[in-house]
């Protein structure tokens, strides 16, 4: 983590604490409701530059016998930290992401992921997150079962312009969202 981290302002467009966040893109594998294979994660805003996300660990997310696939958990962390960046009011993409897997997460669990912005340096947004099992076979809301850190980069609309012809569907804008 750099020494010269700045503390950004919370964007006025970010929902009030406890409010549900809109999907950032309806076809997103992490949160979109127009993505049949997706994880349909949902998020509420925290008090600051933070969010809490929810993931139901379905049977299709199995990696090892009876437990979540590490790549699915990594995706959930990516989504959660990206959604925390919504508090900046500008688009971001993931540049780097790392995960520590501390405990097995059984199928049938409901995970809560709390993610936040730790600070920014120019276009770089440093984030962190932790996951807890809040419902299911081994639920313990006090136990952290996995943690993650990531670096996001703020980007302009031109970033998505380059790939818009590959979109499955016809968005009216790169940031089109579904209503909550
Ligand atoms: C208006 C409201 C809108 C709301 C809307 C919100 C949407 C918000 C929700 C999103 C939620 C989505 C959650 C899923 C998010 C994905 O899954 S995004 C998909 C996966 N990621 C990608 O596809 C990104 C692919 N990579 C790239 O396009 C480019 O490498 C990047 C990341 C844009 C960076 O390229 P660049 O812009 O040319 O940046 P560059 O000038 O090279 O570097 C800038 C700085 O970053 C550093 N840097 C760049 N990459 C790295 C790296 N990997 N490691 C360390 N440092 C790095 C550089 O060293 C440099 O540092 P400084 O010199 O400033 O100290």
UniProtKB/TrEMBL annotation:
Please provide, in alphabetical order, the Gene Ontology terms of the cellular component aspect for this entry.
cytoplasm; membrane
A GO BP entry is: fatty acid metabolic process
Q: What is its main location?
A: membrane
Which EC number(s) does the record attach to this protein?
3.1.2.2
Reactions this protein catalyses: (9Z)-octadecenoyl-CoA + H2O = (9Z)-octadecenoate + CoA + H(+); octanoyl-CoA + H2O = octanoate + CoA + H(+); dodecanoyl-CoA + H2O = dodecanoate + CoA + H(+); decanoyl-CoA + H2O = decanoate + CoA + H(+)
Q: Would you say which domain of life the source belongs to?
A: Bacteria
Q: What species is this protein from?
A: Rhodococcus triatomae
Give UniProt keywords alphabetically.
Apoptosis, Cell membrane, Cell projection, Cytoplasm, Fatty acid metabolism, Hydrolase, Lipid metabolism, Membrane, Transit peptide
GO MF annotation terms: hydrolase activity
Family, similarity comment: Belongs to the THEM4/THEM5 thioesterase family.
Q: Where in the cell is it found?
A: Cell projection, Ruffle membrane; Cytoplasm; Membrane
Q: Which InterPro entries did the record assign? A: HotDog_dom_sf (IPR029069), THEM4/THEM5_acyl-CoA_thioest (IPR052365), Thioestr_dom (IPR006683)
Bilayer topology annotation:
Peripheral membrane protein
What protein name does the entry list?
Answer: Acyl-coenzyme A thioesterase THEM4
Which residue range or ranges hold the Thioesterase domain? 66-133
Question: Which Pfam family is one of those matched by this entry?
Answer: 4HBT
